[in-house]
Design goal:
The protein is of the alpha+beta class. It contains 15 helices and eleven strands.
């Protein structure tokens, strides 16, 4: 979920002391490696009020215990209607363009009972049995994408692999016809390659996707199939009170929240393995020996170590409350920093070390509580399939550039590479 691009240092309302100045946040250098700054915040200002590059004032929650509590606290609403009316940057939260496109009624923006009702309808698409049945298609897509560049000796793993895989998988899941999937790929590309300002690609892409989904829902109503959009239509027709706006918004957020997270899971995970020789050798050896256990724990560790979602999506205090000793006012936005919580030494031993065999790994990469990521089973399937196939078929995979030459996408919520040039 692309957010405002990094600019200069943040402005804080609560600088700890002059002797311990807050490190710059949301700059380009911070985007490259935010973990030292997050370590500082955990120690000196674990619940930290800041002004974001967009002008929004928000609280950053960085310690694991506080983060886990905040993610499940019913006093922190997902609905932006609770954002204080006089707050700076009130209209600059959420997904750019979703408000004007009539796509607000999705799981990232609502609370119970509406959240409970809509999540129940959509959860049928992500049951373990249904995801397992989708596994052969994910493997087919993975092999096909690798086939396209395997003989070239080089590739950009973001553009050639990590980006198209989840797009095509989610299109299949939703029921987007094959002849329309390249359009979806183009719109999704605009979301992550361009900024989110008035002329940014995100808002324009959202409007195009909204128009397309409206038309597709009408088409499918006359020809239902075995896909998620058809399931949403059936639910609506059987008295579940699902409006067309809700159906379009649900399909949209599954696409929007699902594709960029998986791009970053594959991209960040591959990069971590390519820059940790011992762990990469261990991973390849396990694959060669058919050790699926290390594949499973390894993907979870990659999610913890440098996960695809840096900050959980927006929450708003519905009443005054205390988090980590700080007084949060009613209407204040709260951002739980998953990347900081998942490297908290108070929860994870040696947290800055990548250990693919880590067992006690209750990371927050997929969230916690009633808003726990609905698509986590599919993301795990795609991540495990992509990494296992990539490192099995291309055993000498290596970076084609110095790590310092890589650039990370600017944004608030997601963390991912712009490109990942490799040779093999």
């Amino acid at each position: 979920m692309t957010g405002p691009a990094p600019t200069g240092p943040d402005t804080t309302d609560h600088a700890p002391t002059a002797a311990t100045p807050t490190p710059p946040l949301f700059t380009w250098s911070f985007a490259t490696d935010p973990y030292p700054a997050y370590a500082w915040l955990r120690e000196h200002s674990p619940v930290h009020r800041t002004t974001l590059p967009s002008g929004v004032e928000a609280w950053l929650v960085t310690r694991y215990a506080d983060a886990r509590q905040a993610l499940a606290d019913p006093r922190l609403s997902k609905n932006p209607v609770h954002h204080a009316a006089d707050a700076p940057g009130k209209s600059k939260t959420g997904i750019p363009g979703e408000r004007s496109a009539g796509l607000m009624t999705h799981l990232l923006n609502i609370d119970p009972p509406d959240h409970t009702r809509l999540r129940r309808l959509v959860s049928k698409a992500f049951t373990p049995r249904r995801v397992a049945a989708f596994a052969p298609r994910v493997q087919e897509l993975t092999d096909d994408l690798i086939d396209r560049f395997a003989q070239k000796g080089a590739a950009d793993l973001i553009h050639d692999f990590a980006f198209p895989l989840p797009i095509y998988a989610i299109c299949d899941l939703l029921g987007v016809p094959g002849e329309d999937q390249d359009d979806f790929r183009d719109w999704a590309g605009m979301m992550i390659r361009h900024g989110s300002g008035p002329r940014g690609g995100v808002a324009r892409s959202v409007k195009k996707i909204r128009a397309y989904l409206t038309e597709l829902i009408h088409r499918k109503r006359a020809d239902l199939a075995d896909d998620l959009i058809s399931d949403l239509i059936r639910a609506s027709d059987h008295g579940e009170h699902l409006t067309e706006n809700e159906a379009a918004a649900m399909a949209f957020v599954i696409l929007f929240a699902g594709f960029e997270t998986t791009i970053n899971l594959i991209g960040n995970g591959t990069y971590a393995l390519l820059t940790h020789d011992e762990q990469r050798a261990r991973f390849r050896r396990a694959l060669a020996e058919g050790d699926t256990g290390l594949l499973e724990t390894g993907v979870e560790e990659l999610l913890r170590f440098d996960g695809p979602v840096e900050l959980a999506t927006w929450r708003y205090a519905t009443e005054a409350l205390d988090i980590g000793g700080e007084s949060i006012r009613r209407g204040d936005p709260v951002l739980v920093v998953l990347a900081a919580a998942d490297r908290d030494p108070g929860r994870f031993p040696d947290p800055d070390t990548l250990d693919l065999a880590r067992r006690d790994n209750q990371h927050l990469g997929y969230g916690h509580g009633i808003h726990y990521c609905l698509g986590a089973p599919l993301a795990r399937l795609e991540g495990q399939t992509a990494l296992a196939t990539l490192f099995t078929r291309l055993p000498d995979l290596r970076l084609a550039v110095d790590p310092d030459e890589l650039r990370w996408r600017g944004g608030l919520i997601m963390r991912g590479l712009r490109t990942l040039p490799v040779e093999f």
